[in-house]
Amino acid sequence: MTRSIVRFVKHRITQHPDADVTFEAECLAYECEWKASPSTDGAAVDIECMSHTGRTGHGSFRRLCTSFALVERAE
C-alpha cells in the first residue's frame, strides 16, 4: 500500500523585481490598425491615444498592461 502526505505551503506573488510593467494600446475602430508604441510609461501611451483621436476621431482603444510575476514560498 502506498501512502501520501499532503501539506499546505503558503506562497506569495509579487511583481518580478527585474521586469518593468509594459503599457500598450490599439485602436478599436473598424479596419484601423493603429497601435501605440509599447512603453513603461503609461501616461505616454495615453497621450499617443489622445493624439490618434485628435487626428482620426477614433475614440475607442484596448489598453494592455503587462507585468511579470514571481511566486515564492512565504516563510
- Report low-confidence residues grouped into runs of 5 or more: none
Average pLDDT: 94
Shape: elongated
Order of helices and strands: EEHEE
Task: Give an overview of the whole structure.
Helix content is 20%, strand content 29%. It has 75 residues and is of the alpha+beta class. The strands form two sheets. A two-stranded antiparallel ribbon has the order 1-4. A two-stranded antiparallel sheet has the order 2-3. It is elongated, with a radius of gyration of 21 Å.
List strands and helices in order, with pairings:
Elements: E1 11-15, E2 22-27, H1 42-56, E3 61-66, E4 69-73
Antiparallel strand pairs: 1-4, 2-3
Properties at a glance:
two-stranded antiparallel sheet; 4 strands; alpha+beta
